Amino acid sequence: MWIRVNQQHIKTNDYAALISELVEPEFAKNSENPTACVPKCALLLERAVNVNQLPHFEQGWATVQDAHAQWSAELLGAENGETVLDACAAPGGKTTHILEKAPKAKVMALDIEESRLSRVRENLVRLGQIAQVICGDASKPEEWLEEGVLFDRILLDAPCSATGVIRRHPDIKWLRKEGDIAELATLQGEILKALWQRLKPNGILLYALARCYRKKIASKFNGFYKIHRMQNNLKSILTAKKC
């Protein structure tokens, strides 16, 4: 079980020591070292536990979040005072992480399902954070965003096949079909095209993509990249974090 330690309250190694003291000795494995392929805020527990067992959980000292998901806010690099859109934000782990790193950023958390946004609001309240929570279709920003409004940074953790949680839900890989991926690729392409128009000049859009479907879905991005590169309005560094 991975958790994210809120650096505004306590450093990762100190929280690991606190868990070992209050929960169980050597229960938390501190990943805060230069060779670990996880963010410095990530902490691995020996097994899954009730969150109420985590010290000061209700006060926002820690959040349950897989290590790979914690890279999104790290790579986005939002800064205080910037306007940030977290598209497809539910259940709010990345939104709250962005605000932990840049508490004075103006963050909008967007998701198409109102029922899932309740989790976003709950997480914001628990961590004592403020964000604008919007229900809307990321591929149609004209329906929920005023004309001319642009963002400094956009996080697009686009709708996917949930393969990122196969470790916790192994049945997923048996339920997905080839056609599902094609539909997702088309949808992600539509969202990317729409949100790109809402990015400020020299802004940053971080497009998070599941590794196992990278070849199929990335073709949509490659076409998008070629078009905008030819128009001289896209500078891109394509990287893949392999652990």
UniProtKB/TrEMBL annotation:
GO terms for biological process: rRNA base methylation. GO terms for molecular function: RNA binding; rRNA (cytosine-C5-)-methyltransferase activity. Residues 1-243 form the SAM-dependent MTase RsmB/NOP-type domain. S-adenosyl-L-methionine binds at residues 88-94, 111, 137, 157. It is an enzyme of class 2 (transferase). Keywords: Methyltransferase, RNA-binding, S-adenosyl-L-methionine, Transferase. Pfam families: Methyltr_RsmB-F. Belongs to the class I-like SAM-binding methyltransferase superfamily. RsmB/NOP family. This is Ribosomal RNA small subunit methyltransferase B. It comes from Mannheimia haemolytica.
